Amino acid sequence: MTLDEAWRILQENQFKRTKNRETILHFFSTKDRYMTALDVKNFMENDNPGISFDTIYRNLSTFSELGILEETDLNGERHFRMQCDPGVHHHHFICTDCGKTRSIPHCPMEMITVNLPDYEVEGHKFEIYGKCPACIVD
Fold first, then answer.
1. How far is CA 34 from CA 73, 83, 115, in A?
2. Integer angstrom CA distances of residue 31 from 54, 98, 114
3. Cα separations (Å) of 55 from 48, 52, 88, 125?
4. Region 43-72: what's the mean pLDDT?
5. 98 lies in which domain range?
């Protein structure tokens, strides 16, 4: 997702353009990995030393609800990243060390639904966790 697309979505949902929102969206637009609220806070503290976790989490939750950010749980903590290819069905490999992701275009649901003939699947989420090549070397 581009910053222009994110701002369009926010504007359509009557959210104002604020400095904090600009900073958070810019932060995620430059990262190709999942990041935590603490990562965001550390990034923002130089320019805004009084930024609170409440403000950060409120914005992260809004962005996630609107489909601007993707959200996952890693090691019991919420992690976020910019939404990628919103119209293309795919899944991710997520590095548990650095948070980098790699898109997986194949969906395992094709095999799984064969074993659920009398069930109506309404949705799914599939993520693979492990270490990327760079973190295995370290």
1. 10, 10, 32
2. 22, 11, 37
3. 12, 5, 31, 28
4. 93
5. 91-137
Which residue among 35, 61, 82 closes a domain?
82
pTM assigned to the model: 0.79
pLDDT of residue 86: 62
- As a whole number, mean pLDDT of residues 84-110 equals 80
What mean pLDDT do residues 123-130 have?
84
71 and 127 within one domain: no
Which CATH number do you get for residue 21? 1.10.10.10
Same domain, 72 and 96: no
- Name residues whose C-beta falls within 8 Å of residue 57's C-beta, 6 or more positions apart in sequence: 37
Q: How many residues does the chain have?
A: 138
